[in-house]
Write a structure and sequence with these properties.
two-stranded antiparallel sheet; globular; mainly beta; single chain; 7 strands; five-stranded mixed sheet; Ubiquitin-like (UB roll)
Length: 96
């Protein structure tokens, strides 16, 4: 099979949270849902980017907001996991 006709397989982004590594497997799933399934506790309220309760620090990597930028205020290096998805491997800092 010629190299140009090989199917393009995107690598699964890895999420590092306070030293724990999680694989992000479902592209339609929010980062918050992925963290919950992995047993990582994140405080949340609205799940839509309005309240900002789920705000965490993005130490490294890139995320996107598929439904547009959230309405809640987020500071530099902060993200809202309820409405974002990882684009690359990411590292998060979550207060416990």
């Amino acid at each position: 099979m010629p190299a140009s006709s090989k199917p393009s397989i995107k690598p699964v982004p890895q999420i590092s949270v306070n030293g724990k590594v999680i694989a992000y497997k479902q592209s339609k799933q929010s980062l918050l849902e992925c963290l919950e399934q992995a047993g990582v506790e994140v405080h949340y309220h609205c799940r839509d980017g309005f309240c900002g309760a789920c705000r965490v620090t993005l130490a490294s990597g890139e995320i996107s907001y598929p439904d547009g930028e959230p309405l809640a205020f987020i500071g530099e290096n902060e993200i809202l996991p309820c409405c974002c998805v990882p684009v690359t491997d990411i590292s998060l800092k979550i207060d416990e």
